[in-house]
Amino acid sequence: MPTIRIAVIAGDALTTEADILLLKYAQASHGLDREVVRRLDKVGYFIDGQLPKPEKHFLTSSHGALAARNILFVGVPQLQDLGYGRIREFGRQALAILAKEAPATRSILQTVHGPGFGLDEIEAFRSQVAGIIDSVNANTYPTGLEQIVFVESSKNRANNLAQALAELFPTGQIPAGHSEKNTAGSSTPEFLRTTGYNSENKKRAFVAMPFHTDFSDTYDYGIIGAVRDAGYLCERADMQSYVGDVMQWVKNRINLADFMIADLTTANPNVYLEVGYAWGLGKPTILLVKDKNHLKFDTQGQKCLLYTTIKDLETKLKAELAGLNNLLF
Asked: CATH class for domain 203-328?
């Protein structure tokens, strides 16, 4: 049976070669798609008026503005309305579009959608991969497709996604080709069949912490693993990536969360604001701090996990989450 190679790499989507760079357009330009539009503008190709509404798409040459030869924009709802289920649909829809309009496509480059606007990065990635598998199982993908590559600028996130991918497809290959076995979905890992569809029903933690490179390892190695091992989705809203009413967006994510984890190290005012909002909602909150001198206001009288190293944080957080499980389940 033919296969399609699937991989995650750390790198820059603008300088990585592929037949197609696949982008979402969430009714405003964000992050990578904004930079792509800017680069096309620089070479005299203006596409603002052609960017697609939800359920529509726009396929164009890159005109040499980036390494990928062509770009497919797929229209999706605004970020605040883009959940795990819609990300799965995006993964399916994009391949189906290319099956009709660019069937000779051999290589597709894309990024994972979700982490930049508050979703759990592994759940979002699995949802996107599940959509790809939906398209492959239904035989609605480019007939010439050989590889799909996810590119991620953050090395930590790339490592996390690569590990998640290895759990799904240890060989790095997706069974392809139209067959009774494949259309029955037997090539799909069992738990992946419902990923995206039932993700919104899972319990989740919202993490409030400063957005600075100094905290990357704290989040990636001290918090994410402990939260997921306890059975929760781990969501963190990156206010540096969001365009629009940032505070309303953050409040929406906190409203949906079952509890909050807040790192008060450096006494960041945004983090304190988010903690206050969570307290106002009566959300259980786990406070963390590396230096107790960073505690301000009423937090000085609250229970706070004081940690020294990332490993120390992971150990203490796992123990705290074990006790919280008894309250939430």
From this structure: alpha beta
**pLDDT of amino acid 14:** 98
**231-267 confidence digits (pLDDT tens):** 999 998 765 555 556 778 788 889 999 999 999 998 8
User: Average pLDDT in the 70-83 region?
Assistant: 92
Tell me if 271 sits within 8 A of 294, measured CB to CB. Answer: no
Digit-coded pLDDT (tens) for 163-202: 999 999 999 999 886 543 443 344 567 778 899 999 988 9
Q: Where are the domains of the chain?
A: 3-193, 203-328
Q: Check: CB of residue 184 under 8 Å from CB of residue 190.
A: no
**CATH (residue range 3-193):** 3.40.220.10
Separation between Cα atoms, residue 327 and residue 308, nearest integer Å: 27
| pLDDT of 237 | 73
